[in-house]
Amino acid sequence: MVMDFREHQDLARRNSRRIWIAYIVLLLLTAFAIAFLAMTLFYTGEVLVASGSEQLGIMQALQMGVSDVFATDHGLVGLAWITGIGIIALGLSSLYGWVHHSDGHKVARAFDGRLITEDTDNSPAEQQALNIVHELSLAASIPTPALYVIPDPAINAFAAGKDNRHAVVAVTEGSLANFNRDELSGVIAHELAHIANEDIKLNIRVAAFVMAFTALFFIARMMFRSALYSRGRGKQKAALIVLAIGLMIIGSLSVLAGRLLQSMMSKQREFLADATAVQYTRYPKGLADALSLIKRGGRSTQINNPEAAEFSHAFIFGKRNLFGTHPPLEERIRRIRARTSDQEQTATQEKAVAK
Q1: Residue ranges of the domains in the chain?
Q2: For residue 257, what are the contacts with CB-CB under 8 A and spacing of at least 6?
Q3: How would you label 311-339 residue by residue, b for 16+ Cβ within 10 Å and e otherwise?
Q4: How far apart are alpha carbons 88 and 300 in whole angstroms?
Q5: What residues act catalytically?
Q6: pTM score
Q7: What is the DSSP letter of 300?
Q8: Domain formed by 105-199+269-350, architecture
Q9: Tens of pLDDT along 200-240?
Q10: Which residues of 197-236 are buried (b: 16+ CB within 10 A; e: fewer)?
Q11: Can you say whether the dihedral through the CA atoms of 260, 174, 97, 214 is positive or negative?
Q12: Which tens digits make up the pLDDT trace of 107-156?
């Protein structure tokens, strides 16, 4: 039985909620790991400076430090406080990431995008794209976003902005040159779907979380260097290095887990945007043909810009790998073709009833 697009939308939303919860859990676990390492460092240091502690091995001192964290009221209170501070620090890092990504116009200009309006000197292809944005915005019942054209021969597009009132849609010159009107309508409808479904806001949040985890990794690396070149006593210095390495591992794992969750979240939202785009255009073949054009190869989707890697999750076309942010083109096309078949079957049934 073929799943209809409403079911695809519901499934994508449910999966997105689960992944979002996983992000929150990852943030809490990361903050707890920071607190645990900090308290272990504190109690291990106390053990090493205590009377007779010079006779202890480093691993034995660490074991006693871990035990003291959970065996004393001060240890548990300190663990709770530092966990809270860690959550706040990660939250502030995420806030910085939010601010960094929230201005859609700034993002488009970072790709050397040129704003297209009725008052600019537009080529026929640019005017056609502007007309499509206006028409489909009405179908999506959202404010008409600003349109930017990126001077790059690659075929791609993205939407950005903090909400649908401050959104932009950007398409490359390669997209304008290679897509016909139906295909370009499908691509632009896909980007408008990201705006209408608030994916642009979600993408900013997810990217901000990943930026916070990345910041944690660099802090861990700085801590390791500081421990490595400190002038402390031998066992204290060794304890600092061991714990710094532990924090670096936690930071690295957090980044990897964050990017994996980002990949999973983005793939679900891509399916949802495809489904919503078909509702706007009422013509599944347009988007399916655009995807098929890329699948057949021979045309690059990789934008030549330093910002491309950071914003890869926002593009309509992306690389396929472990942390890829886009589902396989074959699966996307299959789902859209299924919608086309459903529409044709419905039309045939309606004609039969009319007769």
Answers
A1: 5-101+202-253, 105-199+269-350
A2: 26, 213
A3: bbbbbbbbeeeebebbbebeebbebbbbb
A4: 42
A5: 191
A6: 0.71
A7: -
A8: 2-Layer Sandwich (3.30)
A9: 777 777 777 777 777 777 777 777 777 777 666 566 666 66
A10: bebbbbbbbbbbbbbbbbbbbebbeebbeebeeeeeeebb
A11: positive
A12: 889 899 999 999 989 999 999 999 999 999 999 999 999 999 999 998 99
CB atoms within 10 A of CB 99: 12
Return the half-sphere exposure (C-beta side, CA atoms, 13 A cut-off) of residue 8. 24
Half-sphere exposure (CA, 13 Å, Cβ side) for 211?
19
Contact call for residues 171 and 150 (beta carbons, < 8 A): yes
Query: Looking up tokens 């200009």, which residue turns up?
Result: 109
Tokens of 46: 């106390």
Count of beta carbons in the 10 Å neighbourhood of residue 137: 22
Tell me the two tokens of residue 199: 């994916």
Cβ-based neighbour number of residue 351 at 10 Å:
9
Q: How many degrees, rounded to 5, is the angle at CA 184 between CA 180 and CA 188?
A: 170
Nearest to residue 314, comparing CAs of 203, 228, 192? 203
